[in-house]
Design goal:
The structure is a single chain. The strands form four sheets. This protein has a nine-stranded mixed beta sheet, with helices on both faces. It is built from 20 helices and 21 strands. The model has no long low-confidence stretch (mean pLDDT 93). It is an alpha/beta fold. The two termini are 42 Å apart. Bound molecules: glutamine. The site of glutamine has 10 residues, from strand 17.
Amino acid sequence: MKYVLVTGGVVSGLGKGVTASSIGVVLKACGLRVTSIKIDPYLNTDAGTMSPFEHGEVFVLDDGGEVDLDLGNYERFLDVTLTRDNNITTGKIYQSVLDKERKGDYLGKTVQVVPHITDAIRNWIESVSVIPVDGKEGPADVCVIELGGTVGDIESMPFLEALRQLFFSVGQHNFCLIHVSLIPVLGVVGEQKTKPTQHSVRELRALGLTPHFLACRSAQPLLESTKQKLSQFCHVPVGNILNIHDVPNIWHIPLLLRNQNAHDAVLKHLDLDRVAQTPNLQEWTLRAEIFDNLTNSVRIAMVGKYVGLTDSYLSVVKALLHACIACSLRPEIDWIAASDLEDDSAETTPEAHAAAWKTLRNAECVLVPGGFGDRGVTGMILAAKYARENKVPYLGICLGMQISVIEIARNVLRLERANSTEFDDKTPNPVVIFMPEGSKTYMGSTMRLGSRKTLLQTPNCITAKLYHNSEYVDERHRHRYEVNPDMVPKLEESGLKFVGKDESGKRMEILELPDHPFYVGVQFHPEFKSRPARPSALFLGFILAASGQLVQYLKSPQNGSL
Ligand code: GLN
């Protein structure tokens, strides 16, 4: 196994994840099989309990792992299916060591950070890196490891020490360290400053790790003199100083790296230059260029709770992008804080209320994404009602599907105070109820997580056609509540159809409103499996409907050409 470690210095938010996945893309384009590991030095066991406000979206894997959103980038960029173990956290490592300690595995020894925690980290990396993630057999050729946080953080110390030991044991030709750093410019026509990078490299070297490559983030391309200076002070050959300057869209980054011959240098370092081919990045080039030259756009209203931080819905945004590119449209996402649509807001914040409604009315389609808690639910119900009554394409994901059910129950079926028991546990009409797969009492296992089968019930519906009439689909889940199976016959009296159910027939997975151009609610999250070259069928249908192309497409979806 060859390891490519990506660390970050100077500031957080440098796009280390995108840099690391782009390096993976270029190596994959050279014919190598690539896997990845993301290390998050925080103490949480996983990202499941972390707020999307603070940390961005919780990404869900096939195996139900709730992980950092960077794993989503790896899955999308490398087109792989990762496992929960591909995300290492301090919490997981300590838990494994403490479990062993309780079992007496350390034979009375003092359990310490070095060597016990560092050994656990090394063993974890070595065993996870060989898990195949690309559908083929046997381990990948290269494992890209991204160390979260910034070098110098107290939390990352045990990881850096473990990685130093790993480097020492596997040797120079099996380990390559790329340090991502920032080259700021002070003033308008100022100089490119190398000092922060010098400091962070010094910090790394003090820990026994010397970077083989620098990946420097900058607004403008790096000057030759800046590279010379970096090389001299950071002990990195000029040819190994890569520059990731600002580009119009992230799909340019693998191209940028290829243009600087990053792959040649990395492959040479790893002794892989003889087995690799010249990189084939045709598809990436095409996509990056198509996106830069899109002239027509589609306005999408996203009505959610966490609209302040767009990373909170990162995979939804990416899935919209993939679908839009397939339709040659530029996505114009209008974020609407659901609570601004509510009647109360007309009194307390009239301007925000008016602006929110104006934005909603201007949109060509409405998306209500997943969420937890009751904030903004009333506004989401209003948005779903607006989309239903005005025949505006609607896609409700997870909470968004539950919202449709509540809305229709209240406004079409006139079921008094119809609600989800998540928001009103005394409702006389519980149309959405708590239906955990696991324990009802132990919080940690009440969530229905990961890939589950949805059987498509009727071939004659939009969803089945979009999924090319497959018998079933495997999509990822992350929820506790579901449509109340006892109320399904009543709900269907409204015209609503549950066109997808789980294998037991008790869990409603997909709903549609037949007399509507596109009104679809799904209990699962189709966004997690969308890929740049393979947009999610439902997002594609949603964007086609918004741009008036769905009817035509459904006549010949097999052609796949738009
Ligand atoms: N809060 C809802 C539930 O737990 C929806 C979850 C979601 O949208 N991911 O079922």
